[in-house]
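Help wanted!
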Amino acid sequence: MRLKQGPPDLMLFLVVVLLVCIGLIMIFSASAVTSDVKYQDAFFFVKRQLIWAVFGLTAMLVLMKMNYQKLRELGVAGLILALICLVAVLLPGIGMDVKGAVRQIDLGFTSFTPSELTKLCLVFFFASSLSLNYGKIKSFVQGLLPYLVLIGVVCGLIMLQPDLGTALIIAVTAYLMLVMAGARISHMLILALLGVGLVCLAIYLEPYRMVRFIAFLDPWKYASDEGFQTIQSLYAIGSGGLFGMGLGQSRQKFFYLPEQHTDFIFAILGEELGYLGVFVVLTLLFIFAWRGFQIALKAPDIFGSLLAAGITTMITAQASINLGVVSGSLPVTGIPLPFISYGGSSLMFTMAGVGLLLSVSRYTHDR
Amino acid sequence: MKTTGLEIRKRIATLFFIFVVVICLLAGRFFWLQVVRGDELAERALDNRMRDITLKAKRGTIYDRNGRELAISVSTDSVYAVPAQIRKAKKEREVAQKLAEVLQMDEKEIYDRITRQVSFVWIKRQVDLETSRKLRELDLEGIGLLEESRRFYPKGTLASHVLGISGIDNTGLDGVDLYYDQLIGGTDGKIVIEHDAFGREIPEATHRYIPPIDGSSVVLTIDETIQYILERELDKVMEQRQPKAACGIVMDPKTGEILALASRPNFDPNRYNDYPADNRRNFAVHNAYEPGSTMKIVTAAAAMEEDTVKVSDRFHCPGSIKVSNRSISCAGGTSHGSMDFAGVVENSCNVGFINIGLKLGLEKYYRYLNAFGFGQKTGIDLPGEAKGIIVPQSRATQIDLATMSFGQANAVTPIQLIAAASTIANGGTYMKPHLLKQVIAPDGKIKETITPTKVRQVLSKETAKELCLILEGVVKNGSGRNAQIEGYRVAGKTGTAQKIAPGGGYMANEYVASFLGFAPADDPRLVCLIVIDAPKGYPYYGGWVAAPVFREVMADSLRYLGVPRTEISKEESNQKKTVAVPDVINLPLDEAVQTLRKVGLKVEVQGDGNLVWGQVPKANTRVEQNSRVIVYLSPVEEQQGSGQVTLPDLEGKSMKEVARILSQLGLHLSPDGHGLAYKQSPAAGTRVPVGSTIKVSFQPLE
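Answered by r_m:
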């Protein structure tokens, strides 16, 4: 059956472009001081991010133009490539050790984060596979179990880096896709309990996670060590007030707030642009979720629905967790804010994901 | 291709709503952080980023009562720059060049500093007066001077124990500078500048300037001249007698104002680290000691006020008295014979005072001890005042009462003792001793003037007056004759207390010599206490060591204050025909008889021989004219027959005298040192063969 092609979802496209632009501005503002000191170049980070944004935009536009259904076969290949990269990054000589974690592969001119590729490929593969197995998923052993094993393998590999944040995002996204694909609620509830248990175990086994978790419960008590990041983040956000200190006027970016242009960039945004700026970004995020799920509901087939819902879920969940961490509502996990945080691979694959989402939007029909 | 079923669509819609809820929760959370708690967090964040540059307040000046400076704050200027201001005026080159000229610094270095991306930078700290004057005249853009001050005591060691010391950070550490630190110290100001996490200033950082509030100046009751006189005399006695410590206080009995207060050993507060820390101990308020006979004024006052004794009462002193199976003797164990109450005080007769004390009883005695302020702080405005040690009334025995009556058992501080004496001099009203006279605000206005505080009426005016006359007699006729000042009626009391040994009991050869007195006796203007701890050499009596110091201090102070002289009428001076018994021990008989007759005394000789071995009453006792003095002679025949002689007591004799006495006895002298004899071997009373060599040690008295 040939589907009639329509125009892509313009609002979604504009929201994403707007978010990326806000990100570029904020990366410059947040990193100018530190990068000037570190690299004698205030534009060090923003230049790099801009290049990645161009790549991301290209990927997004190319994927948008393509028929997502014709990419089905690519799903398996992509996932296999991603798994190879995940194994490769763990091999000495290939992975780059940054602050005790090996998450990137050095390509010479730039670096590449396999887990970001994996995230997108897994969503694509799940959407594809689950749409073919619709109905079978209600059975635990024949339907659900293979997917759980796959999640376990992927998350396990990522945890070896270690990168709990990304593993968590993948697990949450995959889990929600299983739910949406029609898995039994009873199965999923039991799995949720198991998952919580696993997370608790992960926290319990790794001392630095344990300390972070305790510090999260009372950051003021650990203000000078484990609670430092959270406290400095709250200082920044609080200093912003209603209207903010003005773009570029952040005080906390003067080496007080660590990761000020990556995971904690939203705190600097809150400080400089105030609650007004925060509200605008949250509204854009809401529009993104609304358009994304709208596309999923109007998609012509299960594959399109699950693909659109999966990508929207992945991005929205990651944003929610990041904002929860920055506002001190969740323990520090170390995941970037989609579109806005500095990080090339993350930006590019997220934008590529949006390209797929826009591709689905071109085939929607009102029911 | 399957179209999406209802189940999947339902679940997708549900998930969307969950995300909407999450986004709403986040919006609420950020609203709470930024709008509700925003100000509080912003304040805390700012505190977190602020660094201070403290601006020290200038300490107030300490003046003496006549406005003479005793402690001042010396200001030194430090040069700083505000680079942003210079940049704005575009005068970097000009400023650097001019500064380099005035400060004699490298122009390039200054240029580097004033073009730094900071909001505040020191150019040069603590420049001299000439430089700061030049800079003020130049008035360069963005260049300022900040005053940093340091304490300076212009009079050096003078009144060191009163003034105290100030530390490098310009805070009071001792004395008045510590006691009134809050008043004198002022409040420090600061410049607060926002910094990054590594302590570097943030461009266009927040600045706050909180100016320091200078301290108030204080005017003390101290009179620099009297303080100088007191210290001069203390230094003299320190040099002559090398005591372990000494102190003197001069007080105005009518107001309780301390006019002079000094302790020894001394120190220079400008360089206090060059002295042992012990030198900073202020004997006058920190040390409690057994006062000895000066304390008898309290016993006398209590007994007179309570009518326990009448002035006309007669007393007999057999030389010692038994209290609860313990024998207590008068100094030297010699009898004072029969005398009236004034005689008891004049002769400082222990037996007499014991009798008076026992008659008074514990309850009344303690009432007066308390009323005179013993065992309590006087409240003098100096840090670390001691309370003294009073035997608790509940545990006091008759022996305690007896020993207390003549000044043992209790330990008091010099400031307590002089406050008690002032009470007697001030018609029985106890005035609180104090040092602060006035507080002057930094703008020169008088902030506060301290009025004298009457604490309580201890004695009636009549009793106080009567006691003053009796104490005048001590100086006129008794043990305090060395305190007489020509032209002034002086009242006072001597004290010679044995020092308590560390392990209990009394030390055999260490004494505290003191003199407590006031003048003029009929209308006291000054009260003065001199305490000398462990003077070397002989005599060690208060009347010999402390009274002369008192005399010099009082004579010069009274003259300085212009206190009118009193003409003592001839009649009055002839009325009392008492004389002091001269010391005739160790004199040949004919010489002794001659000496005694010359002052109008009769002689009764006991024993045979040519050398006086003992006398009753002992030397320096006041007796009426024509009284009889018994002299005991060494049995010459026996000495000659056996070829042995009894060694006389040579203590206190000059080397010339010792040589004469020994040669008369046919003995040889082996002297050691010079001055007055203080040790001999063998001891006095030992029988030695004629021709023996006697070792005698001498040490200088003056």
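OP: Thanks! One thing I noticed: Residues 91 and 102 of chain A are 9 Å apart (CA to CA).
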